[in-house]
Amino acid sequence: MALADHDIESRLAATVTDLDPNAIDGSTADLVERAFVDTVGVTLAGLSTDIGRSVSRWRPDGGLVATTERAELDHALALGAAGHALDYDDLSWAIDGHPSVVLVPPILALAGETEASGQEAIAAYVAGFEVMSRVAAPISPAHYEDGWHATATFGVFGAAAAAAWLLDLAPEETRNALCIAASTPAGLKRNFGSMTKPMHAGFAARSGLTAAILARDGITADDEAIGGDGGFLDLYGERSEVEAPAGRYIDERGIHTKAYPCCYFTHTAIAATQSLAVEHAIDPEDVESIVVEASQGAADALAHSNPETGLEAKFSMEYAVASALARDRVDLATFEEPALSDPTVEDLRERVSFRTDPDLAYDAHTSVVRLERDETVERRQENPPGTYGNPLSEDRQRAKFLDCATRTIREEHAEGLYEDLDGFAEVDSIATVLDVSEAL
């Protein structure tokens, strides 16, 4: 059994209660603002899916912000599931998963009750991000490699922390919230490519919010449920010594915005394939074979070489690369009919071989794509577009938002919402800005 950490719970609680929104610098606020805007967009798109429509029956308030306390928990569940439904939401290697889709839903659920401003929403987000990153650090990425869906298992702590900050819980109450949350983490990678995967995010968002509300109402937990013997860290992974960053995890590890609505492990290969196609004017019919080399992490996540549904196709390297070569872009329509049954894509997919490179780190996002024809061409892609250090352009970010939002609301409403969210940190009431109930 790993050595107990008898102080982690108090340090995590202090991370939340000591956070001063005025101490968050402009670059961090801008990063979180982009994450909020992106998450609102992908959530609106997710509401139009079968998953979104199914969970919306638990969202009695209809819009993006809960208007009654009774609706808050179900609201967090519905928005979390919808936000992850298309696998288009952002991610961070601080947790080996998707931060915003578990942080934004509880913040939106509490926005009405707490009258949260944009600055307060950003502070709650930062509190949640830091807490789940600190929980993840001692056991990640081995935790993910063992089959856990880290978005859900670490995300529940982030959701609890974000809610605790907005509810202004005292240090002991915040500690209780996190220790209550420690009894709820779940989510299996085995369900990747199914309708249950997005539910993991919804469950985590609701469970974290539930933990904070229970702690506010006086429910207690063992005060070493995270770091003590038999606590979360003992049971969910093998601990290792980790040197924490001098500043915040969010600034050190950042947030990556997705350029394509599918598993992130496909993104470098998609970008490499598209670049080769343009640079060499490749006709798909002339390609004899396509070879993709990536890390073992990609092989573990991408389990559907012969996908039969759009959800499975999101976790198929073969389908993603074939689509990147056969179509002018990889977007939401790529994972819907008629693209799924496009004979050109199907034919190309059968010519794609995917193998791992043992020299690449498990979570490396380097892909080598080799297109074999009369003249073989190859490209080594280190990172996909949209990374923390190379964010999407403003035009591309706006286009993504509108493509997503107009799945649910009319274009004029989507454009107005995007403009209203500009300068999110200065918004007096996020509940007012995000009231799209009449546009749905």
Automatic annotation (TrEMBL):
Residues 260-415 form the MmgE/PrpD C-terminal domain. Residues 11-242 form the MmgE/PrpD N-terminal domain. Residues 373-382 have a biased composition (Basic and acidic residues). Residues 373-395 are annotated as: Disordered. It comes from the Archaea. GO terms for molecular function: lyase activity. Belongs to the PrpD family. This is MmgE/PrpD family protein. It comes from Halalkalicoccus jeotgali (strain DSM 18796 / CECT 7217 / JCM 14584 / KCTC 4019 / B3). The lineage of its organism: Archaea, Methanobacteriati, Methanobacteriota, Stenosarchaea group, Halobacteria.
